[in-house]
Every structure is written in structure tokens, then in C-alpha cells.
Amino acid sequence: MTEPVVDTSPKNWDEVKTTTCYMCACRCGIRVQLKDGRVTYIDGNPEHPVNKGVICGKGAAGIMQHYSPARLSKPLLRVGQRGSGEFKEIEWDEALGLASSWLSEVRAKDPKKLAFFTGRDQSQGLTGWWATQFGTPNYAAHGGFCSVNMAAAGLYTFGGSFWEFGEPDWKHTKYFMLFGVAEDHGSNPIKKALGQLKARGAKIVSINPIRTGYSAIADEWIGIRPGTDGLFVGALIHELLTAQKIDGEYLLRYTNSPWLIIENEGGADDGLFVRNAQNSALVWDNHSNTAMPALSSDAAPKLMGRFKMPDGRRVVTAFTLIAERFIDSEWSAEKVSERCGVPVETIRRIAAELARTAFEEEIALDVPWTDHLGRYHEKMVGRPVSMHAMRGISAHANGFQTCRTIHLLQILLGTIDVPGGFRYKPPFPKPPPPGVKPAGKPGQVKPNTPLPGPPLGFVTSPEDLLVDAEGIPQRLDKAYSWDAPLAAHGMMHMVITNAAKKDPYGIDVLFMYMANMSWNSAMNVPDTIRYLTQKEPDGSYTIPKIIYSDAYASEMVHYADLILPDTTYLERWDCISLLDRPISEADGPADSIRQPVVEPDRDVRPFQTVLLDLGTRIGLTGMTRTDGSPRYPGGYPDYIVNHERAPGIGPLAGFRGPNGRAQGRGTPNPEQLQHYIDNGCHWFYELPDHMKYYRHVNWAYLDWATFFGFIGKPEPVIHQLYCEPLQKFRLSARGHGKVVAPAEHRSRIASYFDPIPFWYPPFEGEMVSDAEFPMHAVTQRPMAMYHSWGSQNAWLRQIMSRNWLYMAREMAAKLKVADGDWVTVTSHHGKIKAQAKLMDGVNPETVWTWNAIGKRSGTWGLKPGSDESKQGFLLNHLISELLPEREGGYRYSNSDPITGQAAWYDLRVRVEKASDQSDVSEPQFATLKPLERVE
Amino acid sequence: MTSLPPPSAKKLGLVIDLDTCVGCQACVTSCKEWNTQGYSAPLTDTNPYASDPSGVWLNRVHGYEVKEQGQDQSRIVHFPRSCLHCEEPACVTVCPTGASYKRAEDGIVLVNPETCIGCKLCSWACPYGAREYDQSQGVMKKCTLCVDRIYNENFEPEDRQPACVKACPTGARHFGDLGDSTSKVSQLVAERGGYDLLPEMGYKPVNKYLPPRARRDATNSPAEALPRPDGSAFDRLFQWADRVLSPRRADGRTSDLDHSGKLEG
Amino acid sequence: MHPAYSVILFTTATGAGYGLLVLLALVGISHGEATTIAFGLTSMVIALGLISIGLLASTFHLGHPERAWRALSQWRSSWLSREGVLAIVTYVPAVLFGVVWSGLIHAPDLIKPLAVITVVLAMLTVMSTGKIYSTLKTIRAWHNPWTVWVYLTFALATGVTILAAITSVFGNFPAFLVYFSSAWMAVALIVKVLYWRSVDAAPRDLTMGDATGLGRLGKVGQWELPHSVPNYVQKEMGYAVARKHAAKLRKLVIAALVLAILLMLSALVVPHAALLSMALVLFASVVQRWLFFAEAQHVVTLFYGAEAA
To answer: Mutate which of C62, C212, C301 to disrupt the B interface (most B C-beta within 10 Å)?
Structure first.
């Protein structure tokens, strides 16, 4: 017999279109195969700068997301009670008419009574601008419970950030430390790079309570106790300072280490930089023995020392204060070891390895460059130590200061934007912090009037806060108030609670996009559901109107009044803009688009087009021509091409100007989208070699970045190891300054607004008893799931249709818990029942699970009672959005006191074997009535 | 057909690097999406949106904990598992119909879905769990090494590789001719000590696994302990800052050496 | 291994049928033509009926029964194919033998040669069935020298007991058959016990570390399964009866066989006891075959959490 003939060259597609993935925040380039109008296969686009052809487990399952049975198919209007699942289908005209009438009413009365919050929104360039135009300060995306500690710590320190805003120099780094990183933003680039590091033999150290995923392949795993990374890093700094293994020259030239700080205890200027008449910070010149302007090529600054100014003021260099702090034996390995759960020898050895790699394995690229003071350098010299940190640092109440401690370590080693170090991705670096201030001060929110600026920005002193004369927050979420002064991403996690409590005020309309706030995106789910359904004595809802847009039947849909069904990611235009969360590479800026590769087969509309339409209907000036007609009649793609934020600067940087020849800045080009499509839906501008490093002080780069509109002026980005804005808050807590902290906030502000990084225990752990809640509980994102989205996906949910509570074998033995036992997990706030799985690679004091696997029965197109709702569970039920009462009964949010970042990794629990061993998780919520789907 | 063809010179297969696999499932879903529309179409699912969802997959990733000698902590090893395209596959020789066969040309083991009777015996004969029965189709499914991709003339040459290999973000999967000792994959196997799964079964797998590399940790750190000065560390730091870091007056131009400033300590 | 009822029915029914066929052929060789046409036809119909029902049952678990004929093609390498071919080929001498032996066509000279061919082919068919299992290196409990003997002895023990039961009904019940069937039941029992001893004594020396090759690093344990719900491989190859239950069921097989022997011996006094004996031996045959599957551990389970195989 002969072999069967196999067709080895089948062509199972009619055409292949490129677009951008949306299965997570990584935003890889994809190629979509289509056959008879159906999507048949998706793979990575080899030309794309982000993923260079690879794809992840989620991305390759995109087909099943696109054809998910949970897709919404028509606008819905609630007809029963919230949560009843009683909706009627309405036409878009009616839906948009209704929405615009609600919105117009609010805007005419008091625009701040609209709270507009978006979740995994990749169009914040548009949504933020829309909120500005509407005139409400109550806008943010989900950054407040995601990344703000990292964004703020980085931007206030060195004008860049971890997350996907920078990356290690994968090509050159020899020692890579990752703190609290699970599958997350930048997931494919990190995976690709880890493979490269492994092949090159670079050492990978993972600091993480859990040894899965990236930590599993790390050379060394440091199973740290959650929330103590700052101590560990501080001890490394202590070791390096003690051994004088720091890059003194980098510190002198590129950081504020030599800047002079006033020492005037009790004075209004204590701890501020001494400045000259031109407002320039000063350094102490070694030769003249006088203070000279910091950014002067003539000065030979002293790194350490205390000096006396001619006017008698006592000054000290910033570095002296930093050294005094960290050289203290409080930071010795012996002191921190037990608290971190990291052996003394390990801390010492890691410090020695860092020093060795940084100072004995130096890299020098033969690339001449010129710095900000015009000094010519023949080579680009680098110290090949790099770091990356994510949510394990971020989601703690000490995350901002911890992240600053990591940046301090990076900078002491001289590893920011040098070969082998951590690199900025354009448009970063930006001034530390960027110059935009949040709008929404008293008097800035007026009926039918846009805000004078964007609702989100960077405060640098108490005068920038959005509070009234009594210190009352002006934003619903209390961002930029004394509760969370540097809340640069807002505090979405507080919106529903505060609206229901009318603290600081009630609202009229809650408008949300893609945010599952009645389930896995809420801390304290049961109360959040209660707040969403809470009624006034007259029978009306406390949150009167809720408009919600989503593509899928998430838990949140059931609690909204008006549903605007969005398209899937394969049915829409989008831009991944440099004005938003860019996809740039360290080697240069990049942006990209989504194009509709298929037409919707349902009566749905892309949210961004709907938002522009609503803007026109309610007469927002940016979206309406003087004759009342839409400024962007073509919807979102029209906006993408024609909107200009500043002259020549629009959502997309590529293919601007006549014939699409201009890059970065240029007139709108009507053919721009076609150029993108022709280029595989992306644009990447590779910087010349002399602009690839030292960009914070690289003259040529700074000039170029100014032209591209990334920075306002070609000024150097001097790393702010000493963070003066924090000191200004401290002074206000001491009663100084134009805006003084209210008495009840003073001790908190004074404690945490330390201009030099430090560590303090996470609040929840401090406020509950160790004996009662001895363990930490955290979640990780599984590599094959993105938030709640994966469970509707027939393929991804087979990988994980339920979750388990993982715990260390040794701890389980102590607690008499066997593999497979059901256990109760109790926090100060709540109790859940989950099934335990034992493992070795987890910090013994920590239990963990995969996040967002638990679903509410009746949602996401799943048959009621599916595994996700029966055996799956969420830790969210255990997490309170408020801290226990203190200081006169006031309950602060369970957040970082500086940025307002939700502190959901601070959770403390106790674990016991459950008396009820039935195969069902608890709590079980009532099944929601599944939405009927119109095909 | 069930009788094996003479050994082929060309032995196409995969080399899987257990040192770099992070268990992301990219190869798993990429395999599913290609094959559910390709040679093995469809790979059906049972209860896709209800309790107990399961389905046919040709590639799955396991997670193991390995406790090494001299280490306090186990390490997790992610372990992708699919057909190994054995040189002497029992799954082929037990097949009563000839539906299972090993290609003479390149050694790929395939099931002919037109002639498979669905007796499942081949899946019993495979020690690697590589064959999965498709209940609704009534035939056995298995990895085809993407035979409909690797030779596909409609693809650019760089896309002519199995879907799992193309997808793998960490580069833990390699595809090539293991019959050619000069091929990249063969060299990789030689360099890294690639091994066979269950060689004692005697089926001579073509696919190879690269073992996790030795970790670079406390046991083999090249760094010497940092010096621990006597007396006040702060004073010493101060002296160091003064001594080493009192810069010469900058003349506007410095050399790279000047910049890197070797440190004492 | 998952004990599929169709496969259990197939192997036990065809085993009994071929066993009976062998016995009938031996009767033909030793006694010539059947005593009566009725007896001859009845016993032949039962034998071929059991075989046919069993073969039919074997197609029940096929995904494509309509393609079953293809299974005859690979006799050069596949024992399953050989079994199919032999089963079909055996029909020819068996039917001819039945026709001449039962006296439908009077050709006494043909009885012996046809009987010999039938015996050889029937035994080969049963052996092939056993070989399907015993050649699978992946299942230690099957890849055992006793496996084929278990298939053969149970075929003969059930066959001879059925013959005894038939003769007891037809009233020509020779004492020899009582002893002969009792002896075969005893042999089957002994072989089965020896099989169990051999299987229990065989070292389970493959570990998860061997299967994954990670044993070279250290001790290997399972952390996470690829999917949260069991898949085909786990359901088909991962079926395991609890050891406690297996021990009980083994005792049940032994007790049933001992009782069947006693009942058979009592048939010397009460011939119809042979019917009960037959029921018991068939019951024992089914249970031991169920255990044959349920107790067998597939090496692939090592990838799915089994510590040793």
C-alpha cells in the first residue's frame, strides 16, 4: 500500500489582514486569516515591533473571544430592578437619545455629577479628552487599582516608569532582577527577552512570593514575604553604600544627589532645595567652595557634605541625607532578614553580585554622544544590571515608596538608560514629574463648560490639590485630595462606594466602559453590589443612572440601566497612541492601529464612535462644529486621523503630513490609516544610535523629543532621588505653605511623604492582629487569561475553568490541611471557602490563587452553575475598599497614602480546614438571569 | 501502511527547551486554532460553555515541581507534551487499518481521518498520551507537526514551521531535521544534552527535550562578598565621596574613562 | 484503563464462543458426528452466536463501525487486525464443521480435518485477542507472559462449561465433561491467580521522574495539570479501581470459580447444576476481565500525577 496523499499546501483562507491584538494589554501585532468572511486563524505579525511574530496563549485564542456567546448584540434598557436581568432591547437612536438627555442634564446642572470611568480602556487619549470637554473632573481609567504606584514613583523620580513604559536593555543586560512580575503588560516582549537572556547566560533573579511562570525559569528565586520588597531593596542599598559600590559620577552628573537642601528644622523652607534668583537648584562647588547652579558645566559639585550659605542658611547635599538613611544599621541584612523572609547571606550575596556585575562587567558601546551640558563622550558606558517591577510592588499601601527604593537602587548603580540597564521607551523620559496639573479645582467645574485642563495630572505641591478651602475633596474618588494627593491615575476603586455614601457628594450619572466593577474589579464585591442597588427613601436608586458599555455580558451589565454594546476587537478601528499608553520600543517610538477585519454581525457600535456621537449630541465643543454638526462625522477613525492635540500632533505619529512623509509632527493626512494598513497596521521610528541611551541627558535626543512633542523644552531630566514635592506636603502637614494640611490628615502626611524612599509596613497588616490573620493572600494573573475575559472563551476556559487556593506544603502540614481539602479563608472583612492545592514554590506565610477565574453564575454566556461559579472563587470578597477605622472614626481607603493605589496585595488572612467539605466554593451568589442573545 | 517504512534520512521533529518554557500556553492554543481548521479539522470541544469543558488538544503543557539535591526549594518546570514522532512508533504498528502511518519521506506520524475506525488502540499503545480521541468525529487526532504548514507554498518561508513553534514567545520550541546531525536542532540537542522521553519503551522518539540548565545561584556565585569596613561606615563613605568624587573642574569635554570613573572600594 | 463494556463483552463472549467451538471440534474429532442434529445445531449456533455477538460488540466502541472492514488490512503488523482476520477466516471451517458435524450434510471424513483446522484457528484467534493486550508495553499489567494464557484458559473454561450446560439440557451429559470442565475452570483459576501474582510482583519501577526525564534533576511531583477538567487520556487511560475494591473483586472471581467447580461437580447428581455453574463461570469471566482493565495502569498516567507505573 502507498501512503495517502496529503495536501501540504492547503490555502484555507481568502485573505489575511493585519491588526492589533486586544486579548490583553500587550497589544501585539496580529495577522488574521479570513475565509468566507469568518475568522479562521490568528497569528503574530513578524514585522511588528512588539511581538515580532510570536503570540501568546490568549492571542491565539482570539477567535473564540470574537465568536463568544457572551457578546452583546443590541442596546439594552433596564426594565426590572437592577440585578434582575430584565432588559428590553432598544434601537441605537433611542439609546443615544436617552444617554445624551441624561448627560446634557448633568452637564447643565453640575458636570461633576457625571462620573466617567473606564476599565481596560485603550483609548484614554480620547476618553480623557472627552471628560475634559464635558467638564467633569470625575474621570479616570483603572490605573488606580493597577499601576499608579509604579507610574507615579517612576515619573516623580526619573521621568520614566516600569510597566510597559520602559524595559531592560535586553540585548546587553547581564543581571536582571524582576520584582513581583507575573504575566502582565508587555507580556510577549518580556517572554521573548527572557528566552534571549537564557540563551546569553545572563542571570535572572526573581523576587516574588510565588515561583511560577517567569520565576520558574529564573536562576534564583527569592520567595519574599508580600509587602517587604522595600526592606529587601533597602538592605541591598545599605550593603552597596557600606562597601562604596555605587556609581558616584552618574549620581553627580545626572541626579539631584549633589543638590543642596535647606536644613532648618521647624522652618517653612526646611527640606526644600536652596535656589538662586533664577530658581535654579544649587550645588556646592568644590573649587570655589561656594554654591553654584546645579546645571552648570563650571561647577565641580560635592556629593556629600553640610555647608553654610552666605546668608547663613545651613544646607546639605541630597545624597548625604540618603546615605545617612540607608547606611543606618536599621537597613542591615540582619535587621530586615526575618521580616522579609530572605536569609542574611542571600541579601549580602545579591548585593555583591550586583556590585560585581555593575562595576566589573561594565559595557562600553562605541557610540559618541553629547550630554546636556555639551560634554562630549566618546562611548556610551553602561552597567549591565537591569530591573523590572510590576504589581507585586504596586498593589501595596507602601508601593510608591517601595518602587522609589528600587529606582534609588537602579540609580545608585548608574543603570538608568545606559547600555545594559533599564531603558526608557519614548515618549519617555519626561520631566520628573511631567508638567501637567489636574484640573477640577473649585471654580474650574462649571455648567456646560469644559475643564480648563485634563482631569489627570501631576501635583507638585499642596496648592495643586483638588480640594476646597476646608480640605474637602473635589473629586468623587477623592483623588488629589489629602487622602491621596498624588493619585495620578484616579481611584476608580472608590467611585461606587463614595457615590453610594455621597462622600464627598452624590452623583447623577455613572458612565463606565469595560470595567467589571460589580465583580472581579471591585474590592469588597458584596457591598459593591449593595451600593449599586441601594435606594433612597423615595425608592429611587442612590446612584440614579448607570450607563455601561461593554462588548460582553459581564457581571456589570446586570447592574446598569442603559447598555451600549461595543464591538469585539476584530470589528473596530483603534489607535494605540503615543498620547495614551504607547507600544514604543526602547529603540524608538511606535504606535499602531486596529482596523475592522470583519463587520459586526450584531447591532453593535464601537464605543469610541459612540462617545464622539454623544459628544456631538450634547454639544461638546471639540466634537461639534459651530453649526452643530459633528466635527468627526466619520466617527473614531475620522478622529484618529484629524484630531490635533497640538498643531501637527495627533493620535498617530506616523505617516503625517502631505503624502504621509512626516513623522511625529505634521498636518493630518487623510490617507494616514491606509498607510498604516499598508505597513501592517503599525509605525516604528528607530532612533539613531547616538540617541538610544542616556536620553535623560542626551542633547540630541532631547532636541528631537521636543520636535516630536514628547517634551515641552529640550531640558535634561535630572533624576530626583530626593523628591521635593513630597517634602512640600510634609511642610504643609507641619503647618507651612499657602495650603495647609487639615489637622486630621497631618500625621499621615507627615509620616508617609518622606522625600527619601523608606519602608513602612502595609496598613492592613498593621491594623489587624498578626495572631488572628497571620498569612498573606495574593493573586496572580494566569498566563492564559486576561482579567475576567478568558472564561467566556471556549479554549481558554478549558485550561482553567476553576481555580484553587495554593499554599505551601509546610504551612499546610502545620494547619492540618491536605491537598484537595476545602478550606476557609478569613480576613478582617469577610470569609470565603476554597479548595486547597499544596505546592513548594510559595512563601510559607502566603496563600495565593489565579485572579478573576471565579464568575457569577449566569454571566459571560456560560451555563448557570458552571465550574467558574461553583468551584471558582475570588479573593475580592475578602478585601475591603476601606481600612478599619482610625483617627477619630474616619476610614481611609485601603490604598497607598501617597497615590491612592488600591492595596489589594496587603490582604491578611487566616486559613482553616472547612467543616463543610462539599465540592462548592463560598460565597455563592444568586444566579443572574442570563441575557438573551439575538443572533 | 501500518508496517513502518524504512527509516527515513529526514527526521522532522521538535526540540523543546524546558529551561525557558514559562508555561504560557501559547503553543497550546496556537496548535488548537491551526489544527481545528487545518489537517485535523475540527478539534471538537465538549461542554464548551457549561460545566466540565473539555476538548481535543494535540499539545498540552504540564507543570511539575522538581526538588533538586542540595536545594531547599522545589522548582517548577513547565513541560509541553505532544507527539514525539517516534522512529519506531507502536501506535502505528498496532493500528489495524493503516490509518496511522509514519511518512516515509520525513518520518511524521499521521492519522488518516478518512480511514481511521476510531478503535483507540493506538492511544493505548502510546506512552506519551499524544493521541486524543475525537468523540464527535469518531477518529483519533494527533500532532501532525503542522504538515500543512511546514511545506505550505502559500506561506513565506519563515512561516513554514509548526504553529506552536512560530507562536512560542520564549523561543523554547525548535523545529527541524533531527536526522541531519548538522542541523540547528541537532546541534542544540548535542550542546544541551537533549534527551528522549521514556527511552526504555524502545520507540525512539524523534522529538527531544532540553533539560533545565543548572541555576546560577548561591552554589555558584562568582561574586566575592562585599568588604565590610571597620568603624563608621558613614564616615568611610564620606571620605570616599570626598576622595574619589571631588571632580576636576569640567572642561566641557571628558573622555569615556573620565565618565566611567573606576571606583575604589 | 477504562473498562469499556463493549470490549469486555467482546472478549468474554468471543472467548466463550471460541472455547465452545474448540470443545465441539474436539468432540467431533473424538466422537464423530453429533449425537443429534438438534444438539449439534444448538451447540454450534451458541458457539457461533457468542462469537458473532462478541465481534459485533467490538464494533460498538468504534468511532466508525462502518469502516470496520478496514481493520482486516494490517495483519502483517497489528494483532488487532490479525484477530479480525482470524475471526473471519475461522467462520469458514467452523461453519463447514458445524454443517458436517451436526449431520446436516453427511460427510464423516471431513469432520476431522475441518475440526482440526477449526481448533487451530479458534485458538489462534483467542491468542490474538490476548496478544492485542500483551504486546502493549505501555501497560505493565498486560505486557505479561500470563496474559495470553488467561485469555486462552478462560476461553476454554467458559467454553467447556457451556458445553457441559448444553449437554445437561440435552440429557446426554457424560461425567467426563463434568470433570473436564471442572478441571478447566481450575486451570483458568490457577492461571488467573498466577497472573495476578505475577502482576503484583512486577516492579512498578517507572516514576514521574522517568517519564518526564526530570528525574535526572531530583524528585519530581505534579504541580498543575494542563487543563482543569480531565481529558480523553485521563478518562481512557487514567481509570483506576480502588485497590480495596480490586482485592474484593478478585476474591469474588475466585469464589465464583470455586463455587462453579463445586456446582459442576454436583451436576453429577443434579445435572442442571451445570447451568448454574455456567452462569457463575461466565460471571467470573466478566468480572476478571473488567478487573483486567480496571486494574491496569497505563504508563501515561505518570505524566498526569501517578508517582509510579
So the answer is: C212
- Quickly state the pLDDT bin for B70 (edges 50, 70, 90): confident
Report domain extents, chain C: 1-135, 174-309
Question: B116 — contact with chain C (CB < 8 Å)?
Answer: yes
Chain B's closest residue to C223, CA to CA, is B64
| pLDDT per position as a tens digit, C181-238 | 999 999 999 999 999 999 999 999 999 999 999 999 999 999 999 999 999 999 999 9
B192 at interface of C, judged by CB pairs closer than 8 A:
no
Q: Which amino acid would we find at residue A473?
A: P
Residues from chain B contacting residue C237 (CB–CB below 8 Å): 123-124, 129
Q: Determine the pLDDT at residue A182.
A: 79
Q: Which domain holds residue A256?
A: 162-427
Residue C227 near chain A (CB below 8 Å): yes
Please state, rounded to an integer, the average pLDDT across all residues of chain A. Answer: 96
Q: Which residues of A616-649 are buried (b: 16+ CB within 10 A; e: fewer)?
A: bbbebebbbeeeeebbbeebbbbbbbbbeeeebb
Q: At A173, which CATH number?
A: 3.40.228.10
C242 — pLDDT class (breaks 50, 70, 90): confident
Min distance A237 CA to chain B CA atoms (Å): 12
If asked whether residues A793 and A735 sit together in one domain, one would say: no
A375–B256 CB contact, under 8 Å: no
A402 in a structural domain: yes
Size of interface A-B (CB pairs under 8 A): 323
Which residues on chain A are in Cβ contact (under 8 Å) with C229? 798, 801, 867
- Of all residues in chain A, the percent with pLDDT exceeding 70 is 99
Architecture of domain B12-216: 2-Layer Sandwich (3.30)
C227/B96 Cβ within 8 A: no
Q: Given a cut of 90, is residue A932 above it in pLDDT?
A: no
CB contact under 8 A, A183 and B24: yes
List chain C residues with CB under 8 Å of B18.
214
pLDDT of residue B257: 35
* ipTM value for the complex: 0.96
Inspect the interface and report whether the beta carbons of C237 and B124 lie closer than 8 Å: yes
What residue spans of A755-802 are helical by DSSP H? 763-767, 796-799
Nearest to B97 among C70, C218, C219 (CB): C70
* Structure-model confidence comparison of residues A768 and C127, the more confident one: C127
My answer on whether A234 and A363 are in the same domain is yes
Q: Is residue A52 exposed (0-12), middle (13-18) or buried (19+ Cβ within 10 Å)?
A: middle
Phi/psi for A250 (5° steps) reads -60, -45
pLDDT, tens digit (0-9, with 9 covering 90-100), for A547-561? 999 999 999 999 999
B212:C217 CB<8 A: yes
Query: Considering only CB atoms, which chain B residues are within 8 Å of A60?
Result: 26, 29-30, 32-33, 163, 167
Residues 6 or more apart whose CB falls under 8 angstroms from that of A262 comprise: A269, A270, A271, A272, A273, A274, A313, A314, A315
Which residue from B60, B68, B117 is facing C218, i.e. has the nearest CB?
B68
Q: How far is residue A130's CA from residue C277's CA, in Å, rounded to a whole number?
A: 88
The residue ranges of DSSP E strands in A618-684, in sequence order, are 682-684
Say whether B124 and C70 touch across the interface (CB within 8 A).
no
Q: Helix or strand or coil: residue A807?
A: strand
According to the model, what pLDDT value does residue A862 have?
97
* List of chains touching C (3+ CB pairs within 8 A): A, B
